[in-house]
Design a protein that fits this description.
Elements lengths: L6 H22 L1 H4 L4 H23 L2 H7 L2 H24 L2 H21 L11 H22 L10 H30 L4 H7 L4 H11 L9 H26 L4 H8 L2 H12 L6 H32 L1
Length: 317
């Protein structure tokens, strides 16, 4: 793909691949999560794929493993943020409407990136022009509106009362913030010679034992899972959960975190479409209003980001 496209173009393709598959996972795994322990899901999917990835790296490019080990701070940071982000997200998508959960998760990525730039995090970057800044501001307002509508019981789905709604909103926001910091650590490792496949395999070293502990403690215990559900978890999970993570790893090595963040902010559009097709969960007028505002902001930010990229490319040429 990179031989046909420029590195930036290939990065955009990988970013959109990540967003579309993540959106499908948010919706189509929703009903499965109601029957299967989310910690079991993570353990099966990421345990299997991590073992395969680490085996491939050990055979093909073992030097990347030693490079990763020589950067303990970045390796630990990637693991802590990945584990926290995934656990928070897998719980959030069960508690509130998938479209809103994914919107809050996605919107927090560019907002956290901009906040990190103000904290002088080297891998982060702020809005590059007024159009992009205005779009991100609108995205922030829409997240407040959708979070408030969910807490007040005006969204399409909440698995419980007001406390559950607030918890779901908080978990979705936390997951987006943590995954953003994970991207920073991934970018740092990539710049120091640790490739996407190695990062994919090493990213879950903390998540897997935490998931095993959550499973043993029954933190998300459901009724006994049918064998067919577990087969579905492994088969579909590799495509809808594991491969998107590999896609974003490829994108990290090709485009900036803010570019990934801007594209990720378009994800709720795909979630809404998939949620409508699946038909399991309804949506409310509050959801539609929040999403309309969100889409307006994300489109403005995307256009602004695209203009900034073109200007920088012309200056470089």
């Amino acid at each position: 793909m990179q031989k046909i496209l420029t590195p930036h173009g290939a990065g955009l393709v990988w970013s959109f691949t990540f967003v579309i598959l993540e959106a499908a996972q948010a919706v189509f795994f929703g009903s499965l999560f109601q029957r299967v322990d989310s910690f079991l899901v993570g353990l099966i999917v990421f345990g299997t794929t991590s073992a395969i990835a680490l085996g491939w790296v050990a055979l093909q490019v073992p030097s990347q493993l030693s490079r990763a080990i020589s950067q303990p701070a970045s390796l630990l940071g990637m693991n802590v943020t990945a584990a926290g982000g995934w656990i928070a997200y897998l719980l959030a998508v069960q508690l509130i409407e998938p479209t809103i959960a994914f919107a809050i998760f996605s919107g927090m990525v560019p907002l956290t990136t901009i906040a990190a730039a103000r904290l002088r995090v080297l891998e982060a970057s702020g809005s590059r022009n007024k159009l992009e800044a205005s779009g991100n501001l609108i995205v922030g307002v829409s997240l407040l509106l959708m979070g408030g509508a969910t807490a007040l019981g005006l969204s399409g789905f909440v698995r419980g009362g007001g406390a559950v709604a607030v918890a779901g909103v908080g978990l979705a926001a936390l997951s987006g913030a943590l995954i953003t910091w994970m991207l920073f650590y991934c970018r740092r490792l990539d710049s120091n010679g640790v490739g996407p496949m190695a990062q994919f395999g090493l990213r879950f070293l903390l998540y897997l034992p935490l998931s095993a502990g959550g499973l043993l403690l029954g933190l998300d215990e459901k009724e006994e899972s049918a064998a067919t559900d577990l087969v579905a978890v492994l088969a579909v999970g590799v495509v809808l959960m594991a491969f998107p993570i590999y896609a974003v790893q490829r994108a990290v090595s090709l485009v900036t975190p803010l570019t990934i963040a801007t594209i990720t902010a378009l994800g709720p559009l795909f979630v809404f479409v998939f949620q409508t097709i699946e038909g399991r969960i309804g949506y409310s007028y509050a959801t539609l209003v929040g999403l309309a505002i969100y889409f307006a902001g994300s489109i403005l930010a995307t256009i602004g980001g695209g203009l900034a990229t073109r200007i920088s490319e012309r200056q470089a040429a």
